């Protein structure tokens, strides 16, 4: 493939020129596009233009050539990325078929791709500790082999469309930590907050390169990660998804994650602009307000986004947030001031802007069609998870034809999406055998080991055995993982008595602590440790297997805990280990 530019601020000039040429040739009374086909009709066979089909050609040139050949229906399809029901492209259960009928008037994900000439699809799912589960309507990921078969089937359907020369976008929220869609058979990294505690962007980059390679092996080429939000509040919806409270340190971590993902051929999507960590409210429930002065956002929320842009991030996700000092009363998703004037103008981003889920309450105040039009006009290029695909598609087409949606804006958006696709093109797909391999596990373990933090107690030296491992409710799997890791490290583990090591995690509070624990370990944000009475307080910020292995090394006295809490905890130091 052509070299992916890491200087997107300068790429906008070329894109603007290409867009102007396309618009001048495709709009106005002389428009020779065919009459719109009924949405139930099969799409015509692909007729790729030479420039769009030739590997190695500049991605923007390939995109421009392809956009010039596409009908209105194809342009609209390129800016939509819905979810679908079912774990296979062409065969689904009756329940999944019913879900797809309600969502898009089709039975299967492949039919959805073909009917609406889609540019991409998001794979969804949820787990018990997932703060985003409210807008995950279904689950269509199970294991790597199943995901690869699903993505192969989706690409086969997309390859028959006129936009077929461009790779089909398949995205998912593989953040690692509490928001991780695919958990079985893959290398699981520690959370972003753990990486922030480690404070070593080179380890973050290596870990995310491993994670990106595994996504690519499953056929996923777009990750809605990393989270670039600075944790300025005790937000439970962002929490350990953030790299920390310091904008400068967070910026370095975000840039490392972007470089790692994109080196593996997976587009990064930094989120949630203009900064969800500056509100403790949850945009899955309402419209959070950012009431900070603009200068505070510029210095405290936006540096990680700027760092990601400098690192070459291909996408940025807009958020359902009301930034009162910039555009009061308007969610950033629908704010031209924030997305076009600030993100593109002030910060210089020229890649793809993707909405947060349009099935979330702040976006559902309008019909799916009107919301899609408003989002596109504000500066988004890709509409994510519309609550009704048919209405979003028809609404965009209607607005294009009555000119309430300028053709320039649609062409610009589709060109950006296709340019990103061609940047991802012509790369070999890794084998599934690369998943959870030794090198990838080591990258995750190195990052997890560097994250373990002592917030109270002696620095290192281990604990006296035998050890009893306890946990708050519902964490038996994690407790078992630590028990196994301790035994492997040579520590005797017993069912009762001895030194009590107590684990707490996402959503736990003071009532989940244990008064007689010698050691209390926070596996998510460490704020709860302020209430703990244990003489030794540790944080892993994550309950991944790699984090439990790292914790066992510290408890066994075999490794020195070198992490620093990336967020302030009342009454506790960032570390008792000096440095």
UniProtKB/TrEMBL annotation:
Residue numbers spanned by region Disordered: 27-57
Record's keyword annotation contains Transcription regulation: no
Keyword Hydrolase carried by entry: yes
EC number annotated for this UniProt entry: 3.2.1.52
Leader peptide range in chain numbering: 1-32
Superkingdom field: Bacteria
Sequence ranges assigned to domain Glycoside hydrolase family 3 N-terminal in this UniProt record: 108-419
InterPro entries cross-referenced by the UniProt entry: GH, Glyco_hydro_3_AS, Glyco_hydro_3_C_sf, Glyco_hydro_3_N, Glyco_hydro_3_N_sf, NagZ_Beta-hexosaminidase
SUPFAM superfamilies linked: (Trans)glycosidases
Keywords: Glycosidase, Hydrolase, Signal
Biased composition (Low complexity): 38-57
Gene Ontology terms for molecular function: hydrolase activity, acting on glycosyl bonds
UniProt family annotation: Belongs to the glycosyl hydrolase 3 family.
Entry protein name: beta-N-acetylhexosaminidase
Organism: Micromonospora reichwaldensis
